[in-house]
Fold this sequence. Notes:
It comes from Sphaerosporella brunnea. The chain is an all-alpha fold. The protein contains ten helices and four strands, in the order H-H-H-H-H-E-E-H-H-H-H-H-E-E.
Amino acid sequence: MSLLLLLLLLLLLLPLLLLPLLLSLPFLPAAPTPKTHASPPPRREWRILSTTEKAATSQRCTLASRVPGSRSRFEGFLGVHILLTDSVHFVGHFHAWHRLLLITYEAALRNECNHTGAQPYWAWTLDVHSNSRTMSSPVSSAETGFDGNGAWIPGRTGGGCVTTGPFANLTLHLGPTEVVDTSEPHCLTRDIAPEVMRLGLNGSFVATALDAETFAEFDVVAQGGITYEAVTVGGELETIADIYASPGDPLFYLHHANMNWIWRRWQSQDLGKRLEDIAGPDTVLDFRGLTGNATVREVMDIRGGGRVCYGYA
């Protein structure tokens, strides 16, 4: 028999010889089908949450930070905001950058700090009708909120260190203002100013923003009115009034969740057009390693078409 015939015969018999070996191998399942974007729990207004949900939301996230100079995960977000304040405020991508910051903070609470709910928002228009209503807002409750004022300083409604509530006696190591290269331990301060809040957080300002025909018009109202006045919830030069270090007060996240909701409501009035209505959609949103960078385009739609997926209730 020629060598060629022997080779052909071997090739024909080879599968039969290998079959027992193949059958003895463990079964390898097919690669799983990529999962669709799961629907996260919706963001709800603070006063709608149950007492248990409020307690879970207001817990500190004290895991170690990846941001130099900060002492906790909470301060890590503060540090990045301080570093980038000058490039993300009073610019066209202000809303987009803070949208991604907020979803990153929300994800950290869920994935690292065992929080199962969504980031709530504070509809401050419900609390600015009178001084007493502002001072007694559910958000300001020491038992089921973030506490109200700091210790009283003559001539103010508060102004000193916050000494009750879940963030009582909190020590911040970054700030005030743009200080990040040295640690300057200081307390969380708050000085609620009802009269000033009423100027910029009332329903007419929100209505004006929602009536804007273009994003440029919306942005002028939001950044020039709502946002600027809103920071004075903390009074002059208190933690949340510090444009650099405002995330040192946890109310920052409830405030921006509401700002984001207002932007989304404006978008939803003409979604097809307004998801594209922004200058510089390919502008890269820098986060200094806190999360992956993204373009403005990737965070325009909160329904999951890009880097963000969440809703409001």
